[in-house]
Amino acid sequence: MEKKTYTFTTKGIIETIERDFAIEYKPFAKYQLEKLPLYVACIDFINNADVMNKMIFANDYLEVPPVKTFLCYKKEICKTLSDYDKKFLGAFWGFLFRCLGYEDSRKVSLGKNSLLKTGLFFRNNAENIVIADSQTVATETKAEKPKNAVEEKKIAEAKK
Question: So where are the chain's domains?
Fold first, then answer.
C-alpha cells in the first residue's frame, strides 16, 4: 500500500504553534510569550523547509529524535541549556510532530556523549509528510484557507 503524502507550509506550522502551544503546555508558555532565545531558535528552524524535511527524514527513516536533529543544527545553543530548557525542547518538538499527524512515539538513548540522555522519535507509518516553504505554495482560495497545520492536512486529503 502506497503512503499518502501531506504537505504542510512553514507558515501554517508556525501559526499553529503560536496559537496553541502556550495553551497546551502552560509550564513552558513563558518561552513563547516572552520570545525567549530558545523559542526563537526553534521558530527559525521551522522557517527553513529544507532542514525541516531533513528532520522528518531522520525521524522517519533513521529513528533520530527531532530534538537531536535540532541540537545538531544549532550547536551554539547546547552550551547554555538548563534542565528546564531541555524539557521545553522535548515538549516543543513533540507538540510539532503531533500537529503533523504523528500519533506514536518511542524513547531512544542518544548516547553517552550527547547533551541529552534520551529523546523521542515519532512514528507515522500511514503517510509521508513534506514541509514546503510558505512562498512556494500556491495561493489558496479564502474558503479553503486552513487555520492550522491539522486543517492543512485535511484540505490536502479532501483534494485527492
Answer: 4-159
Look up residue 144 and give its three cell numbers.
479553503
Q: Copy the grid coordinates of residue 140.
A: 489558496
Query: How far apart, in whole angstroms, are the C-alpha atoms of residue 146 and residue 78?
Result: 35
pTM above 0.85? no
Sign of CA dihedral 132, 11, 149, 53: positive
Report the length, in residues, of the chain.
Answer: 160
110, burial (CB in 10 Å: exposed 0-12, middle 13-18, buried 19+): middle
What tens digit of pLDDT does each residue of 78-99 get? Answer: 777 899 999 999 999 999 999 9
Q: Is the pLDDT confidence value at 7 over 80?
A: yes
